[in-house]
Amino acid sequence: MPIDPGLAIGAELDEVSFSWTATDVLLYHLALGAGAHPTDERELHYTYERDLRVLPTFATVAASAGRHETPRVSFPGVEIDLAKVVHGTQSVTVHRPIPVAGDAVARGRIVDVLDKGKAAVIVSETVVAGTDGSPLWTAQSSLFARGEGGFGGKRGSADKVELPAREPDAVIDTPTLPQQALLYRLCGDRNPLHADPEFARAAGFEVPILHGLCTYGVVAKAVTDAMLEADVTRVSSFSARFAGIVLPGETLRTRVWQDGSRLILTTTAPGRDDAPVLSDAVLTVA
C-alpha cells in the first residue's frame, strides 16, 4: 500500500490505556545493563525495589511492557513491511518523575510524513497522562522506512545540534552485553530484527542488531550516572538521532559537552573506527 500523506498527517491514533509495575521498571533497567556492580548503592536505585527510581527513558517501553506479539507499522495512510523500518529519532520529555508503578492513558497522532526520495520518515507524537488527567510525559519519534519514498511528499529539513568547538567535558565508555538485544526484547519490542539471524540478513544486516531504543536508554543511563550522580529526577528530557547501528557486545563511547542546562552528546562505536551511533543528542537537566 503506497503511503498516503493526506490521510496520515494529523491522524489521531487509538487511545491506549496501560499500566506498569516495579517489575517492569526493574526489567527495563536490567535490560540496559544496570546492576553490573550489584552492591553499588547507585546501581541499586535501578535494580532493587527499595528506593527504586525510574530512568525517564522507561517512557519508551511503559505502554508495551508485557507485550508478546511482533510489532506492526500500521497507521492511517501507512502500511510498511517491518523489515524495512529502523528508528530515526526519539525524544522524551517528562513532566514529573515517572512513578515506580502506575496507570496511564496515551494519546498519539501522526505529526508528519516526509519523503526522502529512497525512504519515508513517519513522525509521531504521544502524550501520556495519569488516569486523573495529570501529565506524565510527551514522546516524539520518527521511523525511517527504506524504499518507501518517492510518493511526492515534502522532504523536510534536518535539525542539527551544533557541537561546541572544544574538547568534550567527559568521555564515557559503556560496554554492552552480547545478549543485550535478547534481554531488551522482553520489555515489549519483539521485532525479529534483534533476535533472528535469518530475518536480520533479509533486512540487510549481517547479524541481529541492538534495538535503537535500547542504545538510547543505555546512553541516557551512562550520562545520568556520570554527569548527574545517577539522579534520574534531574533529567527533564532526552532527544537523539539514531546515526548508525550497534552490534550487541560492542562498547559505546559517548562524548559529552556541558552547555548551560543542556548536556550535548554524541555516541560512537570505537571498535568500528568510531562509527556514529547517536547524533544531535541533548539531555536537558531539570
Description:
The protein is α+β, with helices and mostly antiparallel strands and 286 residues long. The chain is built from 6 helices and 12 strands. It has helices at 5-8, 22-31, 41-47, 180-184, 197-202, 212-227, and strands at residues 16-20, 73-75, 78-80, 85-94, 102-115, 119-130, 135-146, 170-175, 235-242, 251-259, 262-269, 275-285. It has a 10-stranded antiparallel β-sheet. Strands 2-3 form a two-stranded antiparallel ribbon. The chain is globular. It starts with a helix and ends with a strand.
> How many distinct helices?
6
Strand order of the largest sheet: 1-5-6-7-4-9-12-11-10-8
Helix content: 10-25%
Strand coverage percent: 35-45%
Structural class, from helix and strand content? alpha+beta
**N-to-C span:** 43 Å
**Major sheet summary line:** 10 strands, antiparallel
Q: Order of helices and strands, N to C? A: HEHHEEEEEEEHHHEEEE
Shape: globular
Secondary structure tally: strands: 12
The oligomerization state is single chain
Integer-rounded radius of gyration: 18 Å
Domain Peroxisomal multifunctional enzyme type 2-like N-terminal: 18-147
Pfam families: MaoC_dehydratas (PF01575), MFE-2_hydrat-2_N (PF22622)
Domain MaoC-like: 163-263
Protein name: 3-alpha,7-alpha, 12-alpha-trihydroxy-5-beta-cholest-24-enoyl-CoA hydratase
